[in-house]
């Protein structure tokens, strides 16, 4: 814990003050500082721009009188970003005005430090009706940053189901081997057996695998996902907290259905359907086999149609990929990892005096999502996500000089803000011809292509089978002291069972050791948190 580290090199906290607006624009301009984890594989620039100087920052200053400045940039939004914030706290250095915090423990530490401010008053005073409605519709977004009844973080909502997975399968392999797409887990096994033993890539070598899985950190994950295997046997996933029959949260990893999933994975490993190194593969390393054309099946979200699936088509121009629903298990059960409702929260330096400007900026961008923006009628920025031809906006990526990029990635929020379940519901309607795109946002969605639309429709059709992690609070006291040990024990046992190095009965021993080693106490603490956020 960082405890109550009080910085001495900041101004005394003052009341929230509203900056002067002249014709809807701050004059003189208001400066908002932030820090950023910038993944250059995800954020693309053009016209010699960078995160400091780009079309979006220029727009914010010219249209709103808001100048966005980055105090620092690190290479990713995860560990490097979190470490930078922690180092600032330890060194008693000033924090940026606005910080997008995705780590629950770090958010808790910042709130406890007293260096960030509560925002209930600001929400009431500055949030527009459409923003207030978003917060009212999805109050779960505040669960991670509410302490003693005070809200400290503005949610950065996820797509709700935006990172849920479909099965991506090599359709050209299916066609070559006269196979149909799967409906059941048994169908998947038949397909994998053919992919492994019937040389679907035609190179005359025994070098293909059935399915790409990442197992290094968790089998229920964001890419090369294996949650659907466990979901075929029950409504519990590894490392997820779900409601048990008594209405209390239970730890998924110790439920009997997980044992069935591990047994199935061991069977697949023994039959050669899995990568021989599956136990040490993380998500990005695991997906390489699919992208390289050596694997026939991979579970990943619809956004994989933008990355990394196009790399497969570059490597294998004749390859054809198709999205399929998650298969049912022996008893008809279907389940997949369900994305949580938020990807982080915006926390604000206690000395930041311009929450009014932040909400004005947030509302301007959020309005674009709803087709209600006074600033982005045709798209975010001309020449980036659209181009004007003959007086009309064109969204075809191939028609944009210099190529299409997503200028939403340049903004203070990290991207265009999501409203849970909105995007994929729209994509489903477009795919089924139930609705035509009307707004700039909707036209840009359609321009993402058929793979996006079809896979999003599949995701939406199977929303009832989502299995969410219902514990979204900061790590409990016992998790902080025992969690790392218990996680390592779990992954060791799971890996050894899958590899056949340990008998399936070791799962039962693991359950008892987990409970006795701190798991029962963690379960008690997690349920105390769950009661507190649900008003019980």
Automatic annotation (TrEMBL):
The keyword Signal applies. This is Extracellular solute-binding protein. It comes from the Bacteria. InterPro entries: Bact_solute-bd_prot1. Residues 9-18 have a biased composition (Basic and acidic residues). Keywords: Signal. Residues 1-24 are annotated as: Disordered. It comes from Lederbergia citrisecunda.
């Amino acid at each position: 814990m960082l405890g109550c580290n009080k910085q001495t090199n900041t101004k005394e906290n003052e009341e929230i003050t509203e900056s002067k607006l002249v014709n809807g624009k701050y004059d003189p301009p208001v400066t908002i500082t932030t820090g950023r984890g910038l993944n250059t594989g995800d954020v693309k620039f053009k016209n010699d721009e960078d995160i400091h100087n780009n079309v979006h920052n220029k727009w914010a200053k010219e249209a709103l009188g808001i100048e966005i400045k980055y105090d620092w940039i690190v290479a990713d939004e995860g560990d490097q970003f979190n470490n930078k914030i922690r180092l600032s706290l330890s060194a008693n250095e000033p924090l940026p005005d606005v910080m997008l915090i995705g780590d629950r423990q770090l958010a808790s530490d910042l709130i406890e430090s007293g260096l960030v401010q509560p925002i209930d008053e600001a929400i009431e005073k500055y949030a527009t009706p459409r923003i207030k409605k978003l917060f009212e519709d999805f109050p779960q977004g505040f669960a991670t940053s509410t302490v003693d009844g005070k809200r400290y973080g503005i949610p950065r909502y996820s797509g709700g189901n935006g990172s849920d997975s479909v099965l991506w399968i090599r359709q050209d392999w299916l066609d070559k081997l006269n196979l149909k797409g799967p409906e059941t887990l048994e169908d998947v096994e038949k397909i994998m057996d053919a992919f492994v033993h019937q040389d679907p890539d035609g190179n005359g070598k025994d070098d293909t695998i059935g399915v790409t899985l990442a197992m290094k950190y968790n089998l229920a994950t964001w890419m090369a996902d294996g949650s659907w295997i466990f979901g075929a046997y029950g409504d519990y996933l590894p490392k997820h907290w779900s409601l048990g029959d008594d209405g209390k949260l239970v730890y998924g990893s110790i439920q009997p259905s997980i044992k069935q999933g591990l047994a199935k994975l061991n069977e697949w490993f023994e039959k050669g359907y899995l990568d021989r190194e599956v136990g040490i593969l993380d998500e990005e390393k695991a997906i390489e086999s699919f992208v390289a054309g050596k694997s026939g099946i991979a579970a990943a979200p619809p956004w994989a149609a933008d990355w990394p699936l196009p790399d497969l088509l570059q490597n294998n121009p004749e390859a054809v990929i198709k999205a399929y629903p998650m298969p049912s298990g022996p008893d008809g059960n279907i389940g997949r990892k369900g994305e949580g409702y938020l990807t982080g929260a915006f926390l604000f330096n206690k000395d930041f005096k311009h929450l009014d400007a932040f909400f004005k900026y947030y509302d301007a961008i959020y309005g674009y999502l709803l087709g209600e923006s006074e600033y982005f009628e045709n798209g975010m920025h001309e020449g980036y996500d659209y181009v004007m031809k003959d007086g009309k906006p064109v969204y075809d990526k191939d028609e944009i000089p210099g190529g299409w990029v997503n200028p939403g990635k340049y903004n203070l929020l990290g991207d265009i803000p999501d409203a849970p379940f909105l995007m994929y519901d729209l994509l489903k309607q477009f795919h089924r011809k139930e609705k035509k795109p009307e707004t700039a946002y909707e036209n840009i969605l359609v321009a993402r292509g058929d793979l996006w639309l079809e896979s999003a429709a599949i995701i939406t059709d199977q929303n009832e089978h989502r299995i969410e992690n219902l514990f979204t609070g900061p790590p409990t006291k016992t998790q902080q002291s025992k969690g790392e040990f218990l996680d390592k024990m779990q992954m060791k046992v799971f890996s050894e069972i899958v590899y056949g190095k340990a008998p399936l009965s070791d799962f039962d021993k693991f359950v008892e050791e987990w409970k006795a080693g701190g798991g029962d106490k963690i379960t008690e603490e997690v349920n105390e948190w769950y009661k507190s956020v649900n008003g019980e």
